[in-house]
From TrEMBL:
Pfam families from the UniProt entry: B56
Composition bias, Low complexity: 511-527, 535-548
UniProt record, GO biological process: intracellular signal transduction; meiotic sister chromatid cohesion, centromeric; negative regulation of cell cycle process; nuclear chromosome segregation; regulation of mitotic cell cycle phase transition
Protein name from the UniProt record: Serine/threonine-protein phosphatase 2A 56 kDa regulatory subunit delta isoform
Keyword Cytoplasm belongs to the record: yes
Record region (Disordered): 499-585
Organism the protein comes from: Geodia barretti
Key words, A-Z: Cytoplasm, Nucleus, Phosphoprotein
Complexes and interactors: PP2A consists of a common heterodimeric core enzyme, composed of a 36 kDa catalytic subunit (subunit C) and a 65 kDa constant regulatory subunit (PR65 or subunit A), that associates with a variety of regulatory subunits. Proteins that associate with the core dimer include three families of regulatory subunits B (the R2/B/PR55/B55, R3/B''/PR72/PR130/PR59 and R5/B'/B56 families), the 48 kDa variable regulatory subunit, viral proteins, and cell signaling molecules.
Example of a GO MF term: protein phosphatase activator activity
GO cellular component: chromosome, centromeric region; cytosol; nucleus; protein phosphatase type 2A complex
Family designation: Belongs to the phosphatase 2A regulatory subunit B56 family.
Length: 620
């Protein structure tokens, strides 16, 4: 049977699906399986891999003659400029990688053991070999958000090419430290551009490379006097970007460690350039979130500045107080550690300038609910030099220190803090008993003043309550046992006006209970002539309102006070007039407790009470 033309476009097994639409259907199919994420190769630096990587093993340097030794040394250096792939295919060219590794190792050993190896021809070759191997594009950061690196929990990202790279750094260090090295010749090749490229490598995530870079840069700083200002300027630029832009850099601790040794060698008096570096770089470094990664090195640099020039103490202490953490307790503990190191090198004359601001902050730390912060602040009193400074200025410092100690001697939640505070109070008592008693008396006087102030407030509220009781509307509108604050209700507004004010549909009346007969209510003695009730519909001020539901007062009314507060009054049945019956009392609810948003008000307006269906607890 011949196939019709229409059937040619249909797939077997799917008589209604044309073959042309089958591929389109595949494009629309969603993959519903689990997404498998391939971990990218961490530490994948981008090297310019050499095309010709087939290198031959050269004869040993120790077997070469003196005339051919220099040429053979240069040939081995050039062999080490060949770059291999350690990332995509680490098992490739294993034979030639071993030849390069052996050549670098031989160069390092020969340079260390022999004299007269470094000639003028070696300088450009050695610098070029280091540049080819070390200067590269670093891999993307594994932590681009800039969170802190925890050495105890986080594993560092290691460089895959480190087996060869480590030997390159060792060769260059031996080259710089060699007795034959002449900076006057090397400065043609180790220039400011070389320094900038070297500093860019400090952002490497491999701590081993950063450690080698730290030593290399320190050697260059010591050998090349003309590059020192340039190195300090470039380090400042790295810190500026770290503080004000990225807050992400892996080599801040190593750079600060280099600066610590540089600051230690500054000549006196300090230049304005160095003082500006302290104020504009080192002090703002305290505000970065990842302070814990480099704080020991930073504190060392600050202390070195103060040892060089004690007149910088005031600006340093005020800068620390400016960046003092408010909610990060571990960072606050680090600030306290650094502050104690500063106090250890602080001159008594400089201490007087900052003592009040400084010890107010210490007093706030003593009052901290975080026990580690309070504990670290209380350990200050174990420092003999700090206690000697306090003893010399007890007239000023005792009124600042003692009140928080008195306040938290029993109020702090941590019992360890209680013991430390007790020891501190005992120490201050032995230090100057007369001043201690004066401060104690002032503190007790302040407590009495606070108690008197509280008593005055309570007395004022009781007077207000007495005046409220004298109001003619007090006994009509509220139960005496419920009143906690005076409320005067001069105007009565029917509840029916609430839906109109909120633009809600009118609510059907619900029976809550009959109204109270005239003259009967809480606070009205038997036989007494009842006061004339205000007409529902007209308030004392003459404002008109709608009447309450007829025939039994089904609806409650809204009560508006002179101060603007409102309440809802529900009527009760005639037969229940006794004071002891809860239903006989008027139910009052402050209008301020009612919802103000439209959706909530609508939901409550449409809500039907379940009292008619579910019996009350006392009726079962």
């Amino acid at each position: 049977m011949p196939i019709k033309k229409k059937d040619k476009d249909k797939r077997p097994g799917h008589p209604h699906l044309p073959a042309s639409s089958y591929t389109n259907m595949l494009d629309k199919i969603q993959f519903t399986g689990p997404h498998i994420r391939k971990d990218r190769n961490r530490g994948s630096s981008r090297f310019n891999i050499s095309r010709n990587r087939e290198i031959q093993k050269l004869p040993p340097l120790k077997d070469a003659s003196v005339a051919n030794r220099e040429e053979l040394f240069v040939q081995k250096i050039r062999q080490c400029c060949v770059i291999f792939d350690f990332n995509l295919d680490p098992l490739s060219d294993l034979k030639y990688k071993e030849v390069k590794r052996a050549a670098i190792t031989e160069l390092v050993e020969f340079m260390t053991s022999q004299r007269g190896v470094i000639t003028e021809l070696i300088y450009p070759e050695a610098v070029a070999m280091f540049s080819h191997n070390a200067f590269r594009a670093l891999p993307p950061s594994t932590n681009p958000s800039g969170a802190e690196f925890d050495p105890e929990e986080d594993e560092p990202t290691l460089e895959s090419s480190w087996p060869h790279l480590q030997l390159i750094y060792e060769f260059f260090l031996r080259f710089l430290e060699s007795q034959d090295f002449q900076p006057s010749i090397a400065k043609k090749h180790i220039d400011p551009k070389f320094v900038i490229q070297l500093l860019s490598l400090f952002d490497s995530e491999d701590p081993r490379e950063r450690d080698m870079l730290k030593t290399t840069l320190h050697r260059i700083y010591g050998k090349f006097l003309g590059l020192r200002a340039h190195i300090r300027k470039q380090i400042s630029n790295i810190f500026y970007r770290f503080i004000y832009e990225t807050e992400k850099h892996n080599g801040v601790a190593e750079l600060l460690e280099i600066l610590g040794s540089i600051i230690n060698g500054f000549a006196l008096p300090l230049k304005d350039e160095h003082k500006q570096f302290l104020q504009r770089v080192l002090i703002p470094l305290h505000k970065v979130r990842s302070l814990s990664c480099y704080h020991p090195q930073l504190a060392y640099c600050v202390v070195q500045f103060l040892e060089k020039d004690p007149s910088l103490t005031e600006s340093v202490v005020m800068g620390l107080l400016k960046y003092w953490p408010k909610v990060h307790s571990p960072k606050e503990v680090m600030f306290l550690n650094e502050l104690e190191e500063i106090l250890d090198v602080m001159e008594p004359v400089e201490f007087v300038k900052v003592q009040q601001s400084l010890f107010r902050q210490i007093a706030r730390c003593i009052s901290s609910p975080h026990f580690q912060v309070a504990e670290r602040a209380l350990y200050y009193w174990s420092n003999d030099y700090v206690m000697s400074l306090v003893s010399d200025n007890c007239q000023t410092l005792f009124p600042i220190i003692l009140p928080p100690l008195f306040r938290h001697s029993k109020a702090h939640w941590n019992k360890t803090i209680h013991g430390l505070i007790y020891n501190a109070i005992k120490t201050f008592m032995d230090m100057n008993q007369k001043m201690f008693e004066i401060c104690n008396a002032k503190y007790e006087e302040q407590l009495k003043q606070q108690e008197a102030h509280i008593a005055e407030r309570e007395e004022a509220w009781s007077q207000v309550e007495k005046l409220a009781i004298q109001s003619p509307h007090y006994h009509k509108l509220a139960r005496p046992e419920v009143i906690t604050a005076p409320m005067v209700f001069p105007r009565i507004e029917p509840m029916e006006t609430v839906p109109e004010r909120l633009n809600l549909p009118p609510r059907e009346p619900q029976e809550v209970g009959p109204s109270i007969p005239e003259g009967v209510g809480p606070g009205v003695p038997e036989g007494a002539e009842p006061e004339r009730q205000m007409e529902v519909g007209t308030s004392e001020s003459g404002a008109s309102s709608s009447p309450v539901g007829e025939g039994g007062g089904a609806e409650g009314t809204t009560v508006t006070t002179e101060g603007g507060g409102e309440g809802v009054i529900h009527n009760v049945e005639e037969g229940e007039q006794e004071m002891g019956n809860p239903k006989a009392s008027l139910l009052i609810r402050r209008k301020s407790a009612l919802p103000q948003d439209f959706e909530t008000a609508t939901a409550l307006h449409q809500y039907q009470t379940k009292d008619k269906i579910l019996p009350a607890a006392d009726e079962t």
